[in-house]
Fold this protein.
Amino acid sequence: MRHFILLMFSVVGGLTLSGIVANFYRLIARKPESPAATWAYYGIMLLAGPSVLFENSTRSFRKKECSSFAYGFAVCLAAYWAFMLGLVVIDTSMML
């Protein structure tokens, strides 16, 4: 049971970090125009990716623009990505 709780905590922690970074980026940033801004965008999307992927796939699924298989795959990919981010968050917090 301990491992399952750690798994869920990791997924939720990663998704929380992703949502915070994605919303903060939306508040302060514009479209990247220079190569440096484009690379900064890619760096931010490493952290914000699960939230953005989940949001975009849910929007497409509700508009009937993608199949249920594609939606399920995108949700599973976002959950795994959030899990990996959550492991980094947990590991970092354990080091402090």
